[in-house]
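Quick log. Single chain, no ligands specified.
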Amino acid sequence: MHLETVPTPPSEWKTDLLVLIQDAGPSPFDVQDPLLQSRLEEVAAAYADETLEGEFLFEPRHREDLGAVVVYPTASEKGFSLWENAKTFASRAIQLAVRTGRKHVTFALNGPGGADLVSRMAEGAVMATWSFQRYKKEPKDRYADLVVEFAVQDPESASKSMKEGQLLAEAVNYARNLVSEPGDVVTPEALADEARHLAEQFGYQCQVWDEVRLADEGFTGLVKVGGGAAHPPRLIELTFTPEEPGPDHLVLLGKGVTFDSGGISIKPSEDMHEMKGDMSGAAAVLGAMKVLGHLRPELKVTALLVAAENAPDANAARPGDILVYKNGMSVHIENTDAEGRLILADGLCRAGEIGATHIVDIATLTGACARALGPSFTGLMGNHRDLVNAITRAGGAQGESYWKLPLPVEYKELLKTPFADMRNLGGPLAGAMTAGLFLQEFVPEGAAWVHLDIAGPFWRSKPWKYYGEGPTGVGVRTLAELARNWMDYMHP
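-> predicted structure:
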């Protein structure tokens, strides 16, 4: 698919599909065509009295240069912002064009409200093209010949916005591809290779701990969780340092369990195939670093990926084992399927070693969070109000939704055990929050910390907005937005 911005006046538009968004605010488009405008007013009136729903497609008989016009009224999509609806409408328009054999699509954004939508619609258009076909006998790229134009007043400025939207979407699709790969392809070492490639491409500093170094340096969670696997664990560190770094050092910590069988506490077989996606947190962090490599924020950012495969084996972690971490905390393993927090604890310890001032961890951590918030919200917990609010605002700017959950001190009782400082399972109640309380014990002293539980939104079981069925790449855009506009969010 080829994207471009064009200054063509409406009288000279030539396209197979003209895409218009009708909104109550400043109009994104200006068709400058009395007959076409009259028809659009009729359409708007029909939506206003609810005689029409969804998209409206028609052929303007008086314009041979316009194959068809599709109208998307924001009134038909309640509950989402104009920016978010613009992505959804762009995605639907691309799918419509491909489904009906139209090769040339023009988004009319030449009106007073159009400039703000260019990056959003580019994002939705590119995300619409995602599919995972690597292993199909005859893969089909239905979008290869598609030309997408953004008809705007200021093509130069719009081109920059378009490329930013395209960059974000491509990073999300990159993460979706990683999550879609089988667990025997995206292994801990494969994640390390991805980090090395990003380091080479963008000049990042990169280092990788293998299983020997992990044991020597006391990263006990990774060693124990990955002990029964054919593919040994890795700790992966990728750092971007700007030319003039400020006092803040943001660490993005991603859970990278490349396949989670549950270990000896093995999961039920139903839907276990989706556990190749238990590295979605790590994929989101890599996707964000891909964006930041292009945008180069004025902030030191380190990506930490804790990568392991959780498998049953003679060397696997056993229920009843006790781990002692670098910060002195001991943990009694009651269930080997609560492994994510065991390796994130190592990542939090490492974040302290490298002087993190702010830490955001992201993980498909608990089914409890998915059950509580469903597939559209990420659970958010943390120890720092400003960082919590910054994540929420950054996510809102990018169409990713967060819901703050508490960390009640009294719930620490649920983690008590007579055998160690803590156990790795809090029982049947408040599972998302007890997981957060567990992680909080490993947060470096003085560091601001937020935990994101993406167990619900990392995967969609059916198409929604601009997502198809499958992985969503959730978190990529929020993390990139936060780092890119750090001063606005954290030091306004």
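The mean pLDDT is 95.
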